[in-house]
């Protein structure tokens, strides 16, 4: 996992759940309240000389409740939001066409437009509102073809006030999104710093516990079987004692670059201690993980640390274990750690499973 991938995972952990929850709760509230109001309005218009309005309101009510039920069945789908925007488009133009009760339908356009703006995402909402109002304007300027009749002064004032309302609503939404992006950017940078090892730029133990393992638990099908490899640089203390800690830091960076070359883009290399690393292989069996660990071991052995007049051979020991499900993740991490000690006791520079 490169630095940008780490940022993407942190970003998703920070914003996806909160934003998805906000949009979902907004959809639920508007659907239940709006559907109930439309049902009441349909009932109040029963017996009037406007059966088209009653039928349209009834259809809108049914579709609204069906749409919110669909969103409960498929909570991660965005389709329900776009269906909600289409329901608003249909309802607004029915109100314009029929005039509503005693030609008062235009008064309900404002809240419905606002619903369309906040339910649909910002950029698609601009298209939705444009199409909605475009159809309404065509009808208002061709009243001989619709059931309702509006005085010219009402039409002009309605369009002017609606245009002002749309501009203010979109400006408000835009500033809200911009300020939210700035806050997310600042929070993301703080999260990066807290979850990244400053020397190697690798994810640290905090990232694994607070972000990666949480994601794995929430979506086990994507991550399991999850193989873990604990890596420890052999005789690292000798390097620090012989060349100093500055060279030791360069060796850690050298080892980091070597390991990153040996793993897949979906894998995670994290620094969990002084000279200890944890490599995680999502959707990898024990056999696959052992092969990848052996590849890392061989690359590290084949690439000595060279700097100035220093040419120091580097080796590392590896302990491998695999969690088949999320229930035995922590047990597998402990098993990998135990296997590392077996590798070191067996002579180092080897992979133990």
Overview features:
353 residues, Diguanylate_Cyclase, 5-stranded mixed sheet, Nucleotide_cyclase, EC 2.7.7.65, 12 helices, diguanylate cyclase, Alpha-Beta Plaits, 2 domains, single chain, alpha+beta
Describe this structure in words.
By secondary structure, this protein is of the alpha+beta class. The chain folds into two domains: 3-187, no CATH class; 205-352, Reverse transcriptase/Diguanylate cyclase domain (Alpha-Beta Plaits, 2-Layer Sandwich). The chain contains twelve helices and seven strands. It has a five-stranded mixed sheet with strand order 2-3-1-6-7. Strand 4 and strand 5 (310-312) form a beta hairpin. Helix 1 runs antiparallel to helix 6 and helix 5 (122-140) runs antiparallel to helix 6 (152-195). The model has no long low-confidence stretch (mean pLDDT 89).
Please provide a brief summary of the model.
It catalyses: 2 GTP = 3',3'-c-di-GMP + 2 diphosphate. The chain has 353 residues and is α+β, with helices and mostly antiparallel strands.
Low-pLDDT parts are none
Shape descriptor reads: elongated
Helix content: 55-70%
Say how many strands there are. Answer: 7
**Biggest sheet character:** 5 strands, mixed
Q: Indicate the structural class.
A: alpha+beta
In terms of topology, how is this protein built?
Layout: H1 3-44, H2 51-73, H3 79-98, H4 109-119, H5 122-140, H6 152-195, H7 205-218, H8 220-223, E1 226-233, H9 236-243, H10 245-262, E2 268-271, E3 276-281, H11 286-302, E4 305-307, E5 310-312, E6 316-323, H12 329-345, E7 351-352
Parallel strand pairs: 6-7
Antiparallel strand pairs: 1-3, 1-6, 2-3, 4-5
GO molecular function, one term: diguanylate cyclase activity
Domain GGDEF: 224-353
InterPro entries: Diguanylate_Cyclase, GGDEF_dom, Nucleotide_cyclase, Rev_trsase/Diguanyl_cyclase
């Amino acid at each position: 996992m490169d630095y940008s991938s780490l940022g993407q995972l942190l970003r998703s952990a920070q914003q996806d759940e909160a934003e998805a929850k906000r949009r979902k709760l907004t959809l639920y509230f508007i659907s239940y309240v709006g559907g109930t109001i439309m049902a009441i309005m349909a009932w109040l218009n029963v017996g009037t000389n406007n059966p088209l309005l009653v039928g349209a309101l009834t259809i809108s009510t049914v579709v609204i409740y069906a749409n919110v039920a669909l969103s409960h069945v498929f909570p991660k789908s965005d389709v329900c939001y776009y269906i909600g925007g289409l329901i608003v488009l249909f309802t607004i133009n029915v109100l314009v066409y029929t005039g509503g009760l005693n030609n008062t339908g235009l008064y309900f356009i404002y809240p419905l437009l606002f619903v369309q703006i906040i339910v649909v995402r910002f950029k698609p909402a601009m298209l939705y509102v444009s199409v909605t109002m475009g159809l309404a304007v065509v009808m208002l300027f061709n009243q001989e073809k619709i059931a309702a009749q509006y005085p010219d002064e009402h039409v002009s004032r309605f369009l002017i006030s609606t245009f002002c309302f749309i501009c203010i609503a979109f400006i408000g939404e835009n500033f809200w999104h911009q300020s939210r992006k700035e806050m997310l950017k600042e929070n993301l940078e703080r999260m990066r710093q807290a979850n990244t090892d400053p020397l190697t730029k690798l994810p640290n133990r905090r990232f694994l516990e607070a972000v990666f393992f949480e994601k794995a638990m929430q979506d086990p099908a994507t991550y399991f079987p999850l193989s873990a490899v604990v890596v420890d640089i052999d005789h690292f203390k000798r390097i620090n004692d012989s060349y100093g800690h500055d060279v030791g830091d360069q060796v850690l960076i050298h080892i980091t670059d070597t390991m990153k070359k040996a793993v897949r883009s979906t894998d995670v290399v994290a620094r969990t201690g002084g000279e200890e690393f944890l490599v995680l292989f999502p959707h990898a069996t024990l056999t696959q993980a052992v092969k990848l660990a052996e590849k890392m071991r061989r690359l590290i052995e084949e690439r000595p640390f060279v700097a100035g007049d220093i040419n120091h051979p580097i080796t590392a020991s590896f302990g491998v274990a695999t969690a088949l499900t999320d229930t035995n993740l922590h047990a597998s991490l402990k098993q990998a750690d135990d296997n590392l000690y077996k590798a070191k006791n067996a002579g180092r520079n080897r992979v133990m499973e």
